């Protein structure tokens, strides 16, 4: 796993080499310039932390609003973001998954996106965050993951969950209410398909009579399966069936802490690894005003969408959001929706790790492959990589 800078490459635009990417380097105001030794002199290492980066693959806008150059430009940008993640030392990149949802930035076929990213990276691990497993034939998923594992030389992580948007199931004739049992069967079929034995399975949703999936994954005994979960029953299911838990980004780190402790205890009792990856929305800028004006509005739109879909919340800011109140960073839980200067982000991330003892934090900066949103995303990755990540190495 990549844990530091590639040889001879220190990302930055002053007193050192710029990122080895086609696009121009991003330079920051002088107060954020680095020293000749590659680190801010006053900065001290706090705790060793591993980070993942959410990488958008779609614009989240109608096709008429595609960037100049259309889909080709959009994918070039996606590849560049993955390259930035690798250069800065993120441990893995993630791709989301939603179908029939053009307003989102997630891929309708995430394994295709991961295969493309695998061919353009060398050390960055790649994870679906998440694959809505009940929407698919599990043998198809087993084959696709194995293929990407070969292309990437053993760098894929299968992140999977049951889904929460009924129309995604309705459009392909599946019963949304049966997604839990369909998910559990699918996990079992996928694991059997990666073994050396032909698959024999008889379930309510899937029947397999001696299928021998090829190729087999590079990782042995198999690629990790991390399961997305929010409510207690789903968390227990993740501990029973998965190698890790992808937490939601709608609950504070403080409230997740006890749940993570229970998850790990149950996972270890089941002989599972109990890995925890904490999803967090993060906005970073040279000052808080910049973050509130440029980053916060689309992030709040995401939470409005969650409310519209009935995602359960128990936080005061959601009531204010639903009533149409204007919200600033001070109104939000600082260990859930992290926004501000690099110093603000370092402090909030330190609190997150102290509250959860998670293995990873997945950084989600929001929209990305469209116009000004892309430039802001690229600038945020650059600032986070140069000013925040070194504090945790």
TrEMBL record:
InterPro entries found in the cross-reference section: Lucif-like_OxRdtase_Rv2161c, Luciferase-like_dom, Luciferase-like_sf, SsuD_RutA_monooxygenase
Pfam family, one: Bac_luciferase
Any one of the GO BP annotations: alkanesulfonate catabolic process
Alphabetized UniProt keyword annotations: Flavoprotein, FMN, Monooxygenase, Oxidoreductase
All residue ranges annotated as the Luciferase-like domain in the record: 67-351
GO molecular function: alkanesulfonate monooxygenase activity
Highest taxon in the source lineage: Bacteria
NCBIfam families, per database record: F420_Rv2161c
Protein name (database record): Monooxygenase
Upper taxonomic lineage: Bacteria, Pseudomonadati, Pseudomonadota, Alphaproteobacteria, Sphingomonadales
């Amino acid at each position: 796993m990549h844990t530091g800078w590639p040889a001879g490459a220190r990302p930055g635009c002053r007193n050192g080499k710029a990122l080895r990417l086609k696009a121009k380097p991003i330079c920051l105001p002088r107060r954020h310039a680095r020293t000749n030794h590659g680190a801010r002199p006053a900065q001290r290492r706090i705790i060793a932390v591993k980070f993942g980066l959410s990488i958008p693959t779609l614009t989240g806008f109608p096709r008429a609003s595609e960037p100049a150059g259309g889909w080709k430009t959009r994918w070039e940008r996606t590849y560049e973001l993955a390259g930035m993640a690798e250069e800065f030392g993120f441990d893995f990149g993630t791709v989301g998954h939603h179908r029939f949802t053009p307003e989102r930035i997630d891929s309708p076929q995430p394994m295709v996106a991961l295969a493309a990213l695998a061919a353009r990276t060398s050390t960055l691990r790649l994870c679906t965050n998440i694959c809505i497993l009940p929407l698919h034939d599990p043998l198809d998923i087993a084959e696709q993951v194995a293929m990407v594992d070969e292309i990437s030389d053993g760098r894929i992580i299968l992140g999977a969950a049951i889904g929460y948007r009924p129309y995604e199931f309705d459009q392909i004739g599946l019963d949304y209410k049966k997604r839990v049992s369909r998910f559990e069967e699918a996990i079992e079929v996928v694991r059997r398909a990666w073994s050396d034995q032909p698959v024999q399975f008889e379930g309510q949703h899937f029947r397999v009579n001696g299928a021998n999936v090829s190729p087999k994954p590079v990782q042995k005994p198999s690629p990790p399966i991390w399961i997305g979960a929010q409510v207690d029953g789903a968390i227990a299911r993740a501990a029973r069936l998965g190698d890790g838990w992808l937490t939601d980004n709608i609950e504070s780190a403080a409230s997740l802490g006890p749940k993570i402790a229970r998850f790990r205890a149950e996972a270890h009792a089941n002989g599972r690894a109990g890995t925890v990856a904490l999803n967090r929305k993060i906005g970073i800028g040279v000052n808080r005003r910049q973050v509130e004006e440029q980053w916060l509005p689309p992030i709040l739109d995401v939470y409005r969408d969650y409310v519209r879909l009935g995602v359960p919340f128990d936080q005061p800011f959601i009531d204010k959001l639903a009533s149409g109140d204007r919200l600033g960073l001070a109104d939000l839980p600082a260990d859930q929706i992290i926004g501000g200067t690099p110093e603000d982000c370092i402090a909030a991330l330190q609190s997150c790790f102290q509250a959860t003892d998670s293995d990873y934090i997945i950084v989600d900066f929001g929209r990305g492959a469209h116009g000004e949103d892309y430039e802001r995303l690229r600038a945020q990755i650059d600032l986070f990589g140069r000013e925040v990540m070194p504090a945790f190495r």
